[in-house]
Amino acid sequence: MTSRSYFVGVDVGTGSVRAALVAENGKILKNHAGSTKTWNVQPDFYEQSTDDIWAAVISCVKEVIKDVSPQDIKGIGFDATCSLVCVDKFGNPLTVSPSGKTENFFKSNQKANKILGNNQQNVILWLDHRAVKETEYINSFNHPVLQYVGGKIFPEMETPKLLWLKKYLKDTWEKAGYFFDLPDFLTWRATDSTSRSSCSLVCKWTYQMDVDGTESWNRTFFEQIGLSDLAQDNWSRIGSVVQYPGAPVENGLSERAAKELGLFPGTPVGTSMIDAHAGGLGLIGCKADNIDPHFETRVGLICGTSTCHMAVTKEATFAPGVWGPYKNAMIPGMWLNEGGQSATGKLLDHVIDSHPATPGIRKKLPGNMHITQYLNNVIYDLAKKQQFSNPAYLTKDIHVYPDFHGNRLLANPTLKGMISGLTLNIDEENLAMLYLATVQALSYGTRQIVDRLKESGYQNIKSTLICGGLSKNPIFTAAQANACNLPVICPDEIESVLLGAAILGAVAANHFGSVEHTIRSMGGKGKAVFPDPGIIGFHDKKYQVFLKMHDDQIKYREIMEGLV
């Protein structure tokens, strides 16, 4: 290592913490991961522990910096899932869990007067859908603030979860000193500053940054939905100081956190971001030959358990079902629109893990080969055997509707998955074609989001960018390119989320000057996958089936309505 300036990026994902040591050019020199615990206490309830998460942060950061001097670490940035954290007035974890409640606990309007849950379980994970009824209640008012979340709020956002806590965990609600989005908890734990990120608050908490210049909590909204008590003490429990991503958090690393992490006190700490948005930050500056480099021509796909689709403009654009426009949520001075699919990597895992052929395949996988690589080879062999010019044709009669965990774009968390074309076959070829059809279905979900953006004012979209392990999966990248008829940029540095977190640290340190210069300096290079003109028509037809499967599901519900 010849550079004397490094940055640390910390990413807290759904099931793990990762840290990376990043050079000035955006190259990740070293990274390390540690798992975190999740409690699935009942269906749709997912909880975590901030003590467990912070212990993993310490371990991972220490590992990646152990071969460099702390004085060469010029800044650190954090990102995390948009999960709700609850701590008391002294910063101690406070339970968000119904663990130990009776079976009748959730019957209509019943409230709890005593905390029975474990205080270690003080995080409601982003994918937790306990607050569906509270979400419906909030949406029923159709308050104007909701126009900035695509017209309807979603159970993954924080106000429904807060309403659930107030309704069902009265002691927790009364004793809570702070409610944090998990990214903001990390900067608080690192610096002792209670400042919040505009990324978290605008995207997940209904903090107003409007086209008219308003920047504040909307008191009438919180009064309407029954959370007016959050306005006490200048909104201190949910955030009275708001900063844009990367802005230096006051005083930098605290003495306590610096000692825990092995860094110097005062090391610049960048205001945090949600993990997907950090991925967008790390992606958007990636250079590729013959691809327009302007930020406004790109849609970033941050692929993991779920997928978020990030697009930015200089002017606010309202797209029905697409979250935003969010001001200063990713790049200061620009408006962000965020589409999303609730289950992507998780859906592919589910399809593979639940198939009867999978155990036999796993037993014979050579070396470190991933099962998707094996299935890709099966697909190529099948296409060759059937003399198809493109493997996509294998799924002519197999169609998947991928909303196994609801649909963000359509603001409908109750939608279910569907599969058409099942047979009695359960061999590995059957699994390969089902896997391929699922990949294609996820690509049609991307197309639906891109089409909605174009219809709403994004007239200049010229490419998509993909980060994560899926960016190295040729079946997935080809499906995305062909389904959307847009080139896909695959960065050489696939860990765009970690890179985005490190960029926050570089911005806080003012290492490159402007935010835009930092993004372009550290964005790195990538390769483009271009659409195959010969297969576009096939995907157009399958996309029509995709849309009709949704319509059919709605019709089925109408037929069955009122019977139970």
Fold and architecture overview:
The chain is an alpha+beta fold. Helices cover 36% and strands 20% of the residues. The strands form six sheets. It has a seven-stranded mixed beta sheet with strand order 17-18-16-15-21-22-23, sandwiched between helices. It is globular and about 65 Å long.
Count of alpha and pi helical runs: 18
Helix content: 25-40%
Binned strand content: 15-25%
Q: Over all CA atoms, what is the radius of gyration?
A: 23 Å
Mean pLDDT over the residues = 93
Main β-sheet, in a few words? 7 strands, mixed
End-to-end CA span: 66 Å
In total, the number of strands is 23
| Low-confidence sequence ranges | 102-115
Structural class: alpha+beta
- Please state how the strands of the largest beta sheet are arranged side by side: 17-18-16-15-21-22-23
Shape: globular
Task: Provide key terms for this protein.
single chain; alpha+beta; five-stranded mixed β-sheet
Describe the secondary-structure layout.
Layout (H helix, E strand, L loop, with lengths): L5 E7 L3 E8 L4 E8 L3 E4 L2 E4 L1 H16 L7 E8 L3 E5 L34 E2 L7 H9 L17 H11 L1 H6 E6 H10 L4 E2 H7 L3 E2 L5 E2 L2 H7 L6 H4 L6 E2 L11 H7 L7 E6 H10 L13 E6 L3 E7 L9 E5 L7 E7 L3 H9 L4 H7 L6 H15 L13 E3 L16 E3 L7 H29 L6 E5 L6 H11 L3 E4 L4 H13 L6 H8 L3 E4 L6 H25 L4
Parallel strand pairs: 1-6, 6-14, 10-13, 15-21, 21-22
Antiparallel strand pairs: 1-2, 2-3, 4-5, 5-8, 7-8, 7-9, 11-12, 15-16, 16-18, 17-18, 19-20, 22-23
Helix pairs in contact: 2-3, 10-16, 11-14, 13-14, 14-15, 16-17
